[in-house]
Amino acid sequence: MDLTNKKILVGVSGGKDSTALALFMKENNIPAIFYFCDTGWEHPETYEYLNYLESIIGKIIRIKPERDFKELVKSKGIFPSRRIKFCTQHLKINPFKKYFGLSSKFSEDVVCVTGERAEESPARAKKPEFEKDSFLGCYIWRPLKSWTWEEVFSLAERYQVKPNPLYKRGFKRVGCFPCIYANKAEY
C-alpha cells in the first residue's frame, strides 16, 4: 500500500506492542499521528509511561470518551466481561472514530496502524496485514503481524526505551486496569 498523502493514525496504549509500533514508524520515517484512547481506567504507571514515551516518539493525542468507565458501568447496570464486551466499543472505538471524523463512509485517505501480532491469539493470526475496514471506515495495517514477543522487546532495547514497568511486575497485558482479560495474579 502506498502511504503517500495518507493520514496515518497509530494507537499507543503504553503496552509493548504499541511501543514497538511507534518505534517502527519512527525508524522507517513514516509520518504518523500518535493517539491514546483514555478510558479513565488505566493503571497510574501507564499514564506515567505514556508521558515518558511521548518524550521519545513525540506528541500523543489523548482521546477521552464522553462517559468514563464508571459512568458507563452505571448506565449499563453491569460490568463488562469476556462474554459481554461493551467497554472497548464505548470507551475506545467510538471516541476514536468521532475524534478523527471516521464513519461508515469509507475514507481512502486514512490508515489506522495497529500493533496486533499473530502470536497473540488464533483470531489475530487470521487477520490480514492490510485490509479495508468498513466498520472503522479506513484501511487497517498490521506491520508487526509476524513479529515475535522477542522482536518487540528487542526493538525497544535497541533504542534504549524502557518497557512499561507493569511488565516487570508480572503483567501480561497493559491497558485498562483491571482489564477483563487480566489474569488473577494481575489483580
Walk me through this protein's architecture:
The structure is a single chain. The protein is α/β, with parallel strands linked by helices. The chain is 36% helix and 14% strand. It has 7 helices and 6 strands. It has a 6-stranded mixed sheet with strand order 3-2-1-4-6-5, sandwiched between helices. β2 (33-37), α2 (44-57) and β3 form a beta-alpha-beta unit. α1 (16-27) packs across α6. The longest helix is centred in the first third of the chain and has 14 residues, at 44-57. The protein starts with 6 loop residues before the first strand and ends in a 19-residue tail after the last helix. The model has no long low-confidence stretch (mean pLDDT 91).
Q: What class do helices, strands and sheet pairing give? A: alpha/beta
Largest sheet: 6 strands, mixed
Shape: globular
Q: Ends: how far apart?
A: 41 Å
Cα radius of gyration in angstroms: 16 Å
| H/E element order | EHEHEHHEHEEHH
* Uncertain stretches: none
Report the mean per-residue pLDDT as an integer: 91
Report the portion of residues in β strands. 5-15%
The spatial strand order of the largest sheet comes to: 3-2-1-4-6-5
| Distinct helical segment count | 7
Number of strands: 6
The helix content, as a percent range, equals 25-40%
